[in-house]
Amino acid sequence: MSTSAMRNQTLSSSRNLTKKTVPSTRSSSSTAKKSSESGWEYWTRVYSDDTQSSHDIRISDILCSNTLTRAKLLFLNVPNHRSIHKTAIMNLVKKEMIQDDISIQDVIFTPPGKWFLNFYRPEDALKVLKYFNGFSFRGHILAVRFCYPDGTFGDENSLAELVKCSNNVKGKRFEQKEIVQNTILPECWSVSEYEELKKFETELMKILKSHSHLPFQNVIQSMRTLFSFNIQSSTSSILISDALSQWPIGFIRIFNQNVKVISNVMCLSTSPFYTQRIHDSALEGRFSIHRNSWEPFIPNEIRSDAQLIQYFYSFLCHFGPQNIDIDIPIRILTQSLRGTWPKSTSILAFKLINISSSFVIINRVLYLSNDRIHHEKVIYNIATYQDDCSDDYSLELSCDSDDKKVMIDDFDNL
């Protein structure tokens, strides 16, 4: 056989082989495409976003999407070391909890000393919180907190409630569930006041349920009218009227876990509007928090003694001396603090004078020891309290130093 004939035979065989394999390739492509389409159909249901085509999104993007986050944990007091990165944190959790099937959606490392862990399932977050709260890691005792979308903290019971709701209503997102947290601390209020506050919260949420969001001032005005003591009704309340008049934004913060104030609007924590604002704020890198001009920061952000002193100084400059048993603003402030701060106004006030000489308690009233206006009120307080006595008393108040601590509770001992 000539060389030319051999080449023609080889070329013919090659063409026949190609023709035979083409149908097989098309079949595989068709199967893969069908499988891919069914996969996208599943993830589209999970993502529940009709505004985007499945061809415009990658599965890796969907897995990292905040819409899949059902619970978030904040790790505090973590070691700040360069060797600690996202993969190392995920490996730590999986290694320590190897018996549990823990699915972590994402890890955000925020130096110094903070980790944010997002979870697909609230029950996974609850397991991790129970295990790692108090866990010793590289010489650091970790503190783990359940974190709400606005950055405030919830306790283990709040997360357990979320797990319970998640199990009862499978397939629905966290922001679509109607989870009502018990936000009122009974230590700050009498029994009758506690009932009035619960009634206020019920009426407030009833107004907000029918709207995605409402202007803050409009809601406040409606609640003032509803609970006005000047108009006798079943909802009339001196406590609510005074609280809304003296410090409306502080009063609304009591119900922070169920009601959110963003910029100048108010909405429920389960509102899609709130979820969207959180998402937009994350993209913009900032979050608009509604606070008074005199506030250095909101009470939710107080984490240290120094911050507590700074906030209380501004607080007393604005509201003036506070009776720790009666005055509403200081009780609202105590109620608004998160974490391990004392839940009793009296205990919190005495803690304050123990950590700073800038404050003094006289006849159950908290004053600034280095403020001239407060000095005058102290003198009036003493004069009124000792009105029937002829003895003279002197009280040294520091104006510019922290060398002396002053506390007078019982004038019978002077």
Automatic annotation (TrEMBL):
Task: Specify where the region named Disordered lies, as residue ranges.
Answer: 1-33
Composition bias of kind Low complexity appears in 19-33
* Annotated protein name in UniProt: RRM domain-containing protein
* MF (Gene Ontology): nucleic acid binding
**Compositional bias (Polar residues) at which positions?**
1-16
Phylogenetic lineage = Eukaryota, Metazoa, Ecdysozoa, Nematoda, Chromadorea
